[in-house]
């Protein structure tokens, strides 16, 4: 058999390797699949197959990919006829590669299958290194084909097998690139956690190797996964490392992609309010890139941010020249999503200008001129139709469904509802047939929106319900299918829940079934928000009927809808009631802000300095407190009284979470004076068991002095903490960790070994809508929400008993963060604690000490519920002379199981 690693073939192989490495940079998301160089087979002497193979290589060199594929295929058939299995398999693999390059996906699939059948016919125990290498190459090419056709999970499995085959062949570098491709395919399928595991291990292995393109892409792809899963700090570190390595290797496109990734992080941090940093990063990425695709991707990210931040004219100016870049793209997965993205942005621009003109927004001439400058709908439709055809050619059903969905959105704009419905339905059938759940839920809601416009409310409810069911089924796997179509909870997911609730409650008298479904949808939205907060579906949920929890508790679900507030109430007798309240959104917002300001007007900067409000500060509180009572409670007064309600449990929505419900005022009394009050993210997350009063003990920890972590955060000591802890010890057996003793190791040991059902922390902490900015301080460390929750969960496993009540008596919510209470709910639920008592703002030390003393006294001496115990403690301050202002007692909220 002739030796075929001659100089000419070797040079050809190097050129193909370089071409594939260039493609490696440009595949999305994570931008890579492993480069596959055609394996040089050892051939049996024979003029015809040798000539065919050489002709195939020459044709490939000249860019005639389909002709090359045909010659490779003929040569492979000849080798197979001569019994040279290895030679035939490698040439079929080369034929598949060339067919992919030429866009003949059917031929690529046939020849890659032929290659796999041949190489797998050799028993594993009898395979040589060359056999394993041929198997790895065949699996590599087949996985690339799956990936291009949108079968990310299947591609990931194939690349994992390819990596193992390469490892058996001793081809370590090829194994590395296959594992990189595996991680990227997992991202494409939405499995970011699994992708992180694969890529983290690969990064660690490559750390001891010289700089390489594989290492550059691994770090960048890892950074992308960390960004999507919410760890922006680590994501930035990986992207900076990728950028530095790409600069050392002088890889301009790789540099551009890392810069774009850093722009994505800047956009997530404060892109809406301050988009300048992200826009500058995208501009830098565009200027650095040398290839059309990374140039276009940088521009598309810029365009998206300009549209999101309402910079319409700048968006038009940026978007106009992109047509040429779009037309220059070769067929492929990345170019499909780039075309879809561009079409989506054009649809959004047309929608914004059309709405502005319809609503007569000023300045009218600006909108009129901008509308005229945008491409006509026929051009946008042509772009999307062409994209759909390319997706069909590639066999990429998911991209085809996306293109059809955007085309349906375009027809929605022109109010051609029947055509829009047909397109959306066709896209939905296509997506469902390929189990593309992340596309399915969007198309289901889009179809519902169109059906509602057609006047078919029943069909719209069915479509929206199906969309919510799909979201519930896939939960965190829906975070993203590609980085081109970024998952945004508030923009893409939350509106679907709200639109369904609106439809269910829109009739004059919703049925009990509709009210029950509306409640379930609201609960599902709360669960989805917590999933989004933690960036993973980490919370188990079970349906719990209210009468199983408390026969004297009513659950209120106020939900904020466009131009109205809708309140669904689940009464103790298992009946539902509902009332809508028409509100002006601006007036509603002002009322909430006025109430927050009035309640917290006399906040002290530290708990050690007593600042007592003037009694005159109370009257400004009453108007907004009474207005909110009129909206939320007054219409239900009779129903609540008839059901003998003693406890009100609120499942709050949006900005209502920032307001302590205890201060609502009926004109004579605060709501607290008539009801015990609790908050919960939803009954699905509750364990209905009451507190075991006969076996109560406490792990009490706190910082009265400035600890190491407090000093790093520029926070002072909390002098009255010692008094607070001493008060707890008067009423319940307590294990105390104070100041230096309250370090992470000691705390972990105590909660892991002592079966105390109550954990009380008198220390600084903050709740935020950001997972990384929600924390609790010990003496020596700052525990993030994840770290703190994991510590408590781990302790539960070792001591075989959950934390019944977690008390955080010195924490506060982040100022100006309208989703900060998510941090409180997140810690409460994720930690495994059945209930959490916390403060929305820092209250003065002596008031907190007095309230906590009363709370623990009530718990220790009576069989009362936790909600009633905190109510009695708050009333003791309300009726005192010194601390009667709501500032002192309203900050304390009970989250979770109130029994």
From TrEMBL:
UniProt-listed Gene3D superfamilies: Tetratricopeptide repeat domain (1.25.40.10)
UniProt keyword annotations, A-Z: Signal
Domain CHAT: 623-897
Domain of life: Bacteria
Signal peptide location: 1-34
Cross-referenced SUPFAM superfamilies: TPR-like
Keyword Signal found: yes
Short name of any one Pfam family annotated for the protein: CHAT
InterPro entries in the record: CHAT_dom, TPR-like_helical_dom_sf, TPR_rpt
Record SMART domains: TPR
Claim: Signal is one of the keywords in the record: yes
Protein name from the UniProt record: CHAT domain-containing protein
Organism this protein belongs to: Halomicronema hongdechloris C2206
Taxonomic classification: Bacteria, Bacillati, Cyanobacteriota, Cyanophyceae, Nodosilineales
């Amino acid at each position: 058999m002739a030796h075929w690693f001659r100089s000419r073939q070797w040079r050809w192989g190097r050129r193909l390797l370089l071409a594939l490495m260039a493609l490696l940079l440009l595949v999305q998301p994570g931008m890579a699949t492993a480069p596959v160089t055609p394996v040089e087979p050892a051939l049996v002497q024979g003029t015809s197959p040798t000539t065919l193979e050489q002709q195939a290589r020459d044709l490939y060199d000249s860019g005639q990919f389909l002709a090359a594929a045909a010659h490779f295929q003929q040569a492979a058939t000849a080798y197979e006829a001569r019994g040279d299995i290895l030679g035939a398999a490698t040439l079929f693999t080369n034929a598949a590669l060339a067919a992919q390059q030429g866009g003949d996906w059917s031929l690529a699939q046939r020849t890659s299958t032929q290659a796999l059948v041949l190489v797998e016919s050799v028993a594993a125990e009898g395979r040589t290194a060359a056999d394993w290498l041929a198997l790895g190459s065949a699996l590599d090419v087949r996985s690339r084909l799956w990936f291009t056709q949108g079968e990310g999970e299947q591609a990931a499995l194939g690349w994992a097998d390819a990596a193992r085959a390469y490892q058996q062949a001793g081809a370590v570098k090829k194994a590395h690139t296959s594992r990189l491709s595996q991680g990227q395919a997992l991202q494409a399928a939405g499995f970011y956690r699994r992708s992180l595991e694969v890529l983290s291990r690969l990064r660690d292995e490559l750390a001891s190797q010289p700089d390489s393109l594989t290492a550059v892409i691994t770090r960048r792809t890892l950074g992308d996964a960390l960004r999507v899963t919410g760890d922006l700090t680590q994501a930035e570190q990986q992207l900076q490392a990728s950028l530095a390595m790409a600069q050392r290797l002088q890889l301009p496109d790789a540099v551009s992609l890392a810069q774009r990734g850093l722009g994505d992080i800047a956009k997530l941090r404060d892109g809406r309010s301050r988009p300048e940093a992200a826009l500058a990063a995208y501009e830098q990425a565009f200027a650095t890139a040398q290839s059309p695709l990374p140039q276009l991707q940088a521009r598309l990210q810029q365009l998206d941010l300009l549209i999101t931040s309402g910079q319409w004219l700048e968006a038009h100016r940026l978007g106009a020249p992109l047509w040429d870049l779009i037309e220059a793209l070769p067929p492929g997965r990345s170019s499909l999503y780039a075309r879809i993205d561009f079409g989506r942005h054009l649809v959004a621009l047309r929608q914004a200008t059309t709405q502005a003109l319809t609503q007569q927004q000023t300045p009218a001439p600006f909108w009129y001129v901008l509308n005229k400058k945008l491409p006509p709908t026929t051009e946008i439709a042509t772009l999307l139709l062409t994209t759909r055809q390319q997706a069909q050619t590639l066999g990429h059903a998911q991209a085809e469904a996306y293109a059809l969905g955007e085309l349906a959105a375009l027809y929605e704009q022109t109010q051609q509802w029947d055509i829009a419905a047909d397109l959306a339905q066709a896209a939905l059938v296509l997506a469902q047939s390929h189990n593309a759940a992340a596309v399915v839920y969007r198309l289901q809601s889009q179809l519902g929106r169109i059906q509602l416009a057609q006047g078919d409310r029943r069909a719209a409810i069915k479509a929206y319900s199906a969309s919510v069911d799909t979201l519930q089924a896939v939960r965190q796997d829906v975070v993203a299918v590609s980085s081109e179509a970024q998952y945004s909870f508030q923009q893409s997911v939350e509106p679907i829940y709200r639109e369904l609730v609106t439809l269910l409650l829109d009739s004059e008298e919703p049925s009990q079934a509709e009210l029950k479904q509306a409640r379930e949808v609201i609960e599902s939205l709360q669960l989805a928000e917590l999933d989004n907060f933690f960036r993973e579906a980490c919370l188990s949920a079970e349906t719990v009927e209210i009468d199983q929890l408390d026969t004297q508790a009513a659950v209120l679900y106020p939900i904020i809808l466009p131009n109205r507030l809708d309140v669904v109430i689940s009464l103790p007798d298992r009946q539902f009631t509902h009332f809508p309240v028409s509100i002006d959104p601006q007036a509603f917002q002002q009322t909430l802000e006025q109430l927050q300001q009035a309640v917290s007007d006399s906040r002290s900067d530290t708990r050690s300095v007593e600042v007592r409000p003037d009694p005159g500060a109370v009257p400004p509180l009453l108007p907004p407190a009474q207005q909110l009572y009129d909206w939320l409670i007054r219409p239900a007064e009779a129903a609540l009284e008839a059901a003998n309600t003693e406890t009100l449990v609120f499942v709050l929505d949006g900005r209502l979470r920032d307001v302590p419900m205890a201060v609502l005022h009926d004109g004579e009394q605060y709501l607290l004076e008539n009801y015990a009050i609790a908050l919960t993210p939803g009954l699905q997350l509750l364990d209905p068991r009451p507190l075991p009063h006969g076996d109560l003990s406490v792990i009490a920890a706190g910082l009265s002095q400035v600890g190491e972590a407090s000093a790093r955060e520029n926070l002072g000591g909390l002098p009255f903490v010692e008094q607070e802890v001493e008060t707890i010890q008067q009423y319940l057996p307590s294990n105390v960790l104070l100041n230096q003793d309250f370090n992470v190791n000691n705390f972990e040991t105590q909660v892991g070994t002592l079966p105390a059902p109550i954990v009380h922390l008198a220390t600084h902490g903050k709740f935020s809508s950001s997972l990384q900015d929600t924390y609790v301080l010990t003496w020596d460390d700052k525990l993030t929400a994840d770290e703190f929750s994991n510590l408590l969960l781990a302790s539960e496993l070792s001591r075989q008993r959950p934390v019944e009540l977690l008390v955080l008596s010195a924490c506060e919510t982040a100022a100006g963060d309208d989703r900060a209470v998510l941090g409180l709910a997140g810690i409460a639920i994720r930690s495994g604690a059945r209930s959490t008592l916390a403060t929305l703002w820092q209250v003065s030390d002596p008031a907190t000490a007095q309230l906590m003393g009363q709370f623990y006294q009530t718990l220790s001496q009576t069989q009362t519920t936790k909600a009633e115990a905190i109510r009695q403690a708050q009333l003791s301050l309300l009726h005192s002379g010194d601390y009667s202002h709501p500032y002192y007692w309203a900050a304390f909220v009970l989250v979770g199981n109130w029994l």
